[in-house]
Amino acid sequence: MIKKLFVLSLFVSCLFANENYTKKQVENMIAKMVVLGFHGTDVSVNDKIYKDIKNYNLGGVILFDKDPNDKSKRKNIVNPTQLKTLTSKLQNIKVEKLLISIDQEGGVVQRLKPAYGFKYTSSAQKVSSMGENFARQEYQTLAKQLKENGINLNFAPVVDLAINPKNKVIYKLKRSYGKDPKQVIKYASIFVEESRKQGVISVLKHFPGHGSSYGDSHKGFVDVTKTWKQEEMKPYEYLIQNNKVDMIMSAHVFNKEMDRNYPATLSYDINTIILRDMLNYKGVLISDDLQMKAISSHYSLEDTVTLAINSGVNILLFANQLAKPVKLETIINTVYTQIQKGKISLDKIVDSNKKIETLLQKI
What we know:
Elements: H1 2-18, H2 23-32, E1 34-37, H3 48-56, E2 60-62, E3 66-67, E4 70-74, H4 80-91, E5 99-102, E6 104-106, E7 109-110, H5 124-130, H6 132-148, E8 153-154, H7 181-197, E9 201-207, E10 222-223, H8 234-241, E11 247-250, E12 253-254, H9 268-278, E13 284-286, H10 293-296, H11 301-311, E14 316-318, H12 328-340, H13 346-360
Parallel strand pairs: 1-2, 1-14, 2-5, 5-8, 8-9, 9-11, 10-12, 11-13
Antiparallel strand pairs: 3-4, 6-7
């Protein structure tokens, strides 16, 4: 057994050498494919997140206001002054740009709340009811606020269609611009345009559509096979064709008409054949939080990262918000081992890093 492991290790070392990559370089490339949540309203050289960024070239972080274990406490965000200091310190840890991300859709989903001293952002439903001029002003204000506070990546806009009135996670939370794809396209376009003016990356979500679901993928398995409609793909088709996409986030929904075995985040058929080949998407695809129960309750970390990367996902999101925090080293070691075993191609890692580097030029 030891001899086999030695031969395998030697083979992989030679492989990396032929590609001009050391073990450390491969580990850093894996880390660049991770956006990680962490606890702390400040950062110092002794903090784990500082070391993750400094030592491994972590690709990005995601910020939250509330501590999931004690909602009376703050996780990362207290007020504008504190946030600017935090993001500045994070950004200065390494020379290369760090993705500093947040969920600031508006309405129910916003981490920068007026109660903390930030400007309010209206829900997607409210924005679409007020018209284009209101939308442009609202999203101009939002984008400027993000830039001023050192945030360069916003997990919005939602381009899910409001087609299921019983949908608790999109429809009832007013996160959709409407059931008409044209209306969704109109307001999502304004969101992307205003974000780009401030150098803030926007993320269309949740591919290939979460608006028809009955369940919530935060809580468990969600099957949209009988409810999903082809029109849910129209916002992606249009926005991709018209260069109005910076990033796309996958959904943890299952649709056996698209893939009989895996939910979208882990599906090659959905993320590569449909999104990349059929819709011609060339940019970065990020997973939704891989600690949501739709994934974590059914797949091991090893299977999750292997399937996600092989499906076409370029950035793995671990928000460390819904479950026991996962360490960056654990993610790196898991992916690295799968590369050694031949379960993940090194080419996938290299390609993802190239896509991320192109993305960083937009900041």
